[in-house]
Write a structure and sequence with these properties.
This protein is of the alpha/beta class. It contains 5 helices and 13 strands.
Length: about 240
């Protein structure tokens, strides 16, 4: 199996390196990732902009090749498929994102944007995310087996597998929740800090606030599964397919 690994947290992300190492257990791996942090860029593309592409010769995983791109996650997929790889990969793995991609936050996700770009080009994709600033021990313990399971269960055109790892150690994991629904709320609620400036203008800084533990979410949803200590696996449909 030939696998393209991408992300939105940059070529330097520990989650990207772990995903590439785990993907290498399933086949040959190529990495194409943003040169800098690109969270919440959704499916944004760089138009009429020259993208700088550089080889990452010292990438910390056994890969066939690795490149950084001065663009968005979706740019990385396009660059890989149209310019860098000699043949179309069998799968695209996107992540491991530093922060959950669940509920309405999926709409903003650069991790999912890259996965959607893949399926729009006929390549099946899986998105992987972990609790923000949390240990990667649980993904390391379970990701390869989950990836192997999902690649053997192909979805229809336009569908993406979405996997989220809970904020628990491997020994505390309650199990795997499959076929979860998308919670009808954001996991990271909007919080904008408004600061008046001396010239009469304003600066507005957005910082998400995690959903309160006592806030109600639908039973069987992605957020519900993570709260109960389960790995969450669901399906997401591209809006254009």
């Amino acid at each position: 199996m030939n696998i393209l690994v991408v992300n939105d947290d940059s070529i330097h992300s520990p989650g990207l390196a772990l995903l590439a190492r785990e993907a290498a257990k399933l086949g040959r791996v190529w990495v194409v990732a943003p040169a800098s942090q690109c969270s919440a860029m959704s499916h944004r593309l760089s138009i009429n902009t020259a993208l700088r592409v550089e080889r990452a010769a010292d990438f910390p995983a056994p890969v066939e090749g690795a490149w950084s791109v001065s663009g968005t996650p979706a740019d990385c997929v396009k660059a890989a498929l149209l310019c860098l790889l000699k043949e179309k990969p069998d799968y695209v793995f996107s992540g491991i994102n530093d922060g959950y991609n669940v509920g309405y936050d999926i709409a903003y996700s650069g991790t999912l944007g890259a996965a959607m770009e893949a399926v729009m080009n006929g390549v099946p994709a899986i998105a992987f995310s972990n609790a923000m600033r949390y240990s990667l021990d649980t993904p390391q313990a379970y990701l390869a087996d989950i990836a192997r399971e999902l690649t053997e269960k192909p979805l229809g055109p336009g569908w993406v597998w979405n996997v989220n790892f809970p904020e628990v150690a491997p020994g505390e994991l309650q199990g795997i929740a499959r076929d979860v629904t998308i919670a009808n709320t954001q996991m990271y609620l909007d919080n904008y800090i408004v600061q008046p400036q001396p010239d009469g203008s304003l600066t507005i800084t957005g910082r998400g606030i995690p959903l309160a533990p006592e806030a109600s979410v639908p039973e069987g949803s992605d957020i519900d599964a993570l709260r109960r200590g389960y790995i969450s696996i669901g399906r997401i449909k591209s809006a254009v397919m």
